[in-house]
Amino acid sequence: MVLATIYSFLSLGNILLLLLLLFILHYLMILYEFRNMPPGPRFTTLPILGNFLSLDLKAKKLNDAFQSLKDNYGRVFSIKLGSYKFVMASTPDAVKEVLIKKSADYAGRQQTYSLMEGTLGGKDIIFGNYGPGWKLHRKLFTTALRQYLSDIPLIESRVNTQAEKLVLSMEKQQGQPFDPADCLMRAVADVICGITFGEGYDTTNPDLNKLLKLNVDSVANADLSQMATILDFFPLAQYLPIKVYERYLGPFFEMFDIIRKFLNERKRNFDPEKPVKDLITGLLHAKLEAESESNEDRTALLTNDYFINTIEDMFAAGYETTSTTMKWVLAFLVNYPKYQETIQLQLDEEVGDHTPSLENRTRLPLLQATIIEALRVGNVVPLAVPHVTLTDTTLCGYKVPKDTIVFVDTESVHLNSKCWEDPTVFNPYRHIDEDGQLITNQGNFFPFGAGRRVCAGESLAKVELFLFLSWMLQKFTFVAEEDGCPPKLEGIFNLTQFPVPYKIRAIKRKWT
Questions:
Q1: How many H helices and E strands in the chain?
Q2: What is the per-residue pLDDT across 40-59, written as a single tens digit (0 to 9) for each?
Q3: What is d(CA 103, CA 108) in angstroms, rounded to the nearest whole number?
Q4: Which residues contact 245 (CB under 8 A, 6 or more apart)?
Q5: What pTM, to 2 d.p., does this model score?
Q6: Which residues contact 128 (CB under 8 A, 6 or more apart)?
Q7: What is the dihedral of CA 419, 422, 428, 432, to 10 degrees?
Q8: Between β-strands 476-480 and 405-408, what pairing exists: parallel, antiparallel or unpaired?
Q9: What pLDDT digit, counting tens, does each position of 85-136 carry?
Q10: Residue 395 pairs with which residues in a beta bridge?
Q11: Contacts of 471 (CB under 8 A, 6+ apart)
Q12: How many degrees, rounded to 5, is the angle at CA 303 between CA 148 and CA 276?
């Protein structure tokens, strides 16, 4: 009887009417869900898909995929992607509000399937959500890094050892065209190996060489990463019989196995009486201290899974952003040789044929200004790791509910004519004052983020960048692969923005 009634109701007209009512109900729910939030495309929000069709899916860079939305709704807008609400902070005021003024409100991270699986349950520093575990391990990380950087002779010795290998590698090119990406990356990675695993460890170790290769491949495979990110917007995708997640997460589990091997080996040989000389030893000391204090809550957060994620964060983030920045610096200096020449004149005057050291930093302002300018124009992180609101808050007067994902568009600051004169022009002198001294804090500069989620490795990156680049520019003049063909100053975006692969020549300077 019931089935007969339902069957009699299922006429074409009634089905269309039901669908119409469902669509009206859907859009009423969308309007209610986004009430008082930044403007956005409400009536093109489709069931399940959300506003995916409003994006430019053919855009080469993620930032460009949102351009039409910025044009139509302004530079602070909101959309729905799959099951999640998103807000784009794409003005200087909005960026500063998220990163600085209300950083506590925006300190969360999205807890999507691939991020949770790829961090063993959200137990890392970069993608971990704000909470007791994240605060403890960030503090341990920054403390260990601060102790390391306070030993100036140690950090200089380790960086200089790799810098010497780097210039020897470039010298072997004998002035022929080469792609500097691999040697730059390996030099930085070897410094990170020493900091993380201890003196004597570098990528000549087969396991660490494999760890580096797995990291490099995961960063280079932008298509797979973007596909996993898109699927994350649809929680049910994890149950579908597709191989994307398996292919994306597989390398991470291999990385964790390698790190677990080193961690277990260090545990077996751990001597608490020896001073802390690397990150792993620092973590083991922290665990021993918590256990001696019978602090069960703290001890529960000092597990292998947390340690493994912290070590991987140090390794991956440590080599990737620093080597990418150096690639940008060399690309810009080949395109703007007058700055390279002036940097080398300062090096000749202040360093001569001595080994560059951190003591030379204040007397080499143009080199430091060039690094800052490359970070600004190259914009290594054009869209910072997405933030998530931990509470109901506001942005530029609009409501932003709890658990909203927020994109922070640093490019809207770094390449904004209201923040910088001729913003797309590479000009290191904008960071030098009338007395020829470096301007260290001009504002409108967020390559390392800011606030509670500021990059913990910023101080280490600055040390490495200065020492490596001063070594290279003291020994070589870098020129185009062939006359009139300097590197293209275009970026490719995955987790970071790196320059299009290029080749250059390293011409040994005559006086050296």
A1: 18, 10
A2: 999 888 888 999 888 887 77
A3: 9
A4: 113, 114, 117, 228, 231, 237, 238
A5: 0.90
A6: 109, 119, 122, 134, 137, 309
A7: -60
A8: unpaired
A9: 999 999 999 999 999 999 999 999 999 999 999 999 999 999 999 998 899 8
A10: 398
A11: 160, 163, 164, 166, 167, 355, 356
A12: 20
- Residue labelled with tokens 């001294």: 437
Q: Which residues contact 147 (CB under 8 A, 6 or more apart)?
A: 276, 282
pLDDT value, residue 4: 58
**Residue 148: both structure tokens together:** 């390391």
Tally of residues, the chain = 512
Which residue type occupies 165?
Answer: K
| Per-residue pLDDT tens digits for 373-400 | 999 999 888 877 899 999 999 999 999 9
* Helices 244-268 and 304-335: angle between axes, nearest 10 degrees: 110
- pLDDT > 80? residue 414: yes
What is the full DSSP assignment across 144-173? HHHHHHH-HHHHHHHHHHHHHHHHHHHHTT
SS3 505: strand
CA distance linking residue 345 with residue 349, whole number of Å: 6
